[in-house]
Each structure stands twice: as C-alpha cells, then as structure tokens.
Design a protein that fits this description.
Largest sheet: 6 strands, mixed
Number of domains: 3
Mean pLDDT: 79
Strand content: 5-15%
Order of helices and strands: HHHHHEEHEEHEE
Length: about 260
C-alpha cells in the first residue's frame, strides 16, 4: 500500500499532536491508515478539490475532537488521583503540607526579590541611587561609620557634587507630651528629601540654614507616626518638643509611604 509522502505525513502528525497522548497511542495508526485511504479515494474521485476538502474536514475534525478528549482524559486522571488520595490519607496529608510549604516559600522569596530587585524604588530616578559605606562595613564591621570630616568632604567629591545625602539613625526620648516617649529617628542632611524627590504633606522640608552651627533644631514627622501619635492633627507643625533635653521644632509632615532609609 502506498503511504503519504514524508512532508504530508509530518504535516498531519502536527495536527494529531493536539490530541491526548493516550488517544494517539490507541487510535493514531488507525487514523493514519484511514486518512491515507480517504486521501487516495478523494484524489481519484475529485482530484485536487477533493483532496483539499478532505484536509479541511480532517483538520476541523481534530480541532473539534481534541478539547473533548483532553477533558475526558482529565476527568479520568482526576478521578483516579482522588481515589488514590482517599486510600492513602497519610500520604495525601504529607503531600498537601509539602506542596503548601513549597508554594509559601516560593511566594515569600518572589515577594522579596520583587521588592528589592525588580520593583522600582519609590523615588525620582531610583535606578540611579547608590549607597556608600566605609570600608570597615564591607569587612563585616557593622559599627563602622564615616567621620564628621569625611562627611563634610564627600558632598563635593566626584562623582557626587551636590547630590550626596547623609543618614544615620538614633534613639531619643521625646518630651513635651503627657508622657515621655522613646522614639527612633533618622538623622539626615538638609537635602535628603530633595534628592529623593519627597515632598512634605504639611509644612516644609529641611533647608540649608537648618544645618548651620547654632541653628535651632528642627524635625519632620513621618505620616505613620503623625497619625498614630497626633491623630493627624496638622496644627502640630511649628510646635516645639524636647528630645534629649534639646528643643526641636516640627517643621513638616511627610506624606504617606515616604520612608527614611526604610524606616517610617
């Protein structure tokens, strides 16, 4: 018996690949034989028109049959899996717990990677921001910091003229309210929020004169702390509080979501 030429055989094989594997294993050779016989008969009876009609009907038939066969196969496999799960509840529970732990761990890792590596920083030109640390910090000395003299020289150094900001955190005792409160603060250079493109919700940001020797101490409140401790009262701007026995005046309130080196 003459068979289809290799190119046509491969072509019809691609379409048969849409059917489930088990279906192809059971009926594939028979389908190929029937199609070959019909192909020869169509060529003898109606020539090219008959062959084209056969190809069209065969391809349409495969597209109509494939979804139903896949669904039937899925139902069969799902039913078998459920029966096996009922027979081995211990194994089923262990598999579900392992799957749950795996999904949870991957979700947590993906969230961290997305937040730290993929998601843009919520600042203007976030892709151009870098962090400078003393060489001691790179060697594992977490307490290593820049000296005051180094901090004064760095803003004018290449390649950061006028674009370098300083940050470190400190703990203070805040006085001037009903009870003393221990607060964690971020101590920053005057241009910190300008470089990050952060605008205050109320009041103003820091200014160059705020850093001058002998200038009155000023502070800005994070949105979260402002809501939590002052109930969102905008009149707190220009009020004075004592921190470590030194008066500090509130000059502004940060907008929601604005962070100082990750702290809010």
């Amino acid at each position: 018996m003459q068979r289809l030429d290799p190119e046509r055989h491969e072509f019809i094989g691609h379409f048969c690949g849409l059917l489930p594997f088990d279906f192809r294993s059971d009926f594939g050779p028979e389908m190929e034989t029937v199609f070959h016989e019909q192909h020869q008969e169509a060529g003898r009876s109606n020539g090219t028109t008959g062959v084209l009609r056969l190809w069209w009907e065969t391809i349409v038939g495969i597209f109509r049959t494939a979804p139903g066969e896949h669904l039937a196969m899925f139902r069969q496999d799902a039913g078998f899996a459920l029966r096996m799960m009922r027979k081995s509840p211990g194994f089923t529970l262990a598999a579900i717990l392992t799957l749950g732990l795996g999904i949870g761990a991957n979700s947590a890792i993906f969230s961290v990677v997305t937040r730290l590596l993929l998601k843009p920083l919520p600042y203007e030109h976030g892709e151009r921001l870098v962090t400078l640390r003393p060489t001691g910090a790179a060697r594992g000395n977490a307490e290593s910091t820049f000296s005051v003299a180094e901090i004064k020289r760095l803003p004018d150094a290449e390649p950061f003229p006028g674009r370098l900001v300083e940050y470190h955190n400190m703990n203070f005792i805040l006085l001037g309210r009903s009870e003393p409160e221990r607060v964690e603060t971020g101590v920053v250079s005057w241009n910190y929020f300008d470089v990050f493109g952060v605008k205050p919700l109320f009041g103003r940001a820091f200014r160059p004169e705020d850093e001058q020797p002998g200038a009155p101490a000023v502070l800005m409140l994070s949105y979260e702390y402002w809501i939590r401790s002052f109930g969102g009262d905008p009149t707190v701007v220009n009020k004075t509080f004592s921190m470590n026995d030194r008066p500090h005046t509130v000059v502004g309130i940060l907008a929601a979501g604005a962070a100082v080196s990750g702290r809010k």
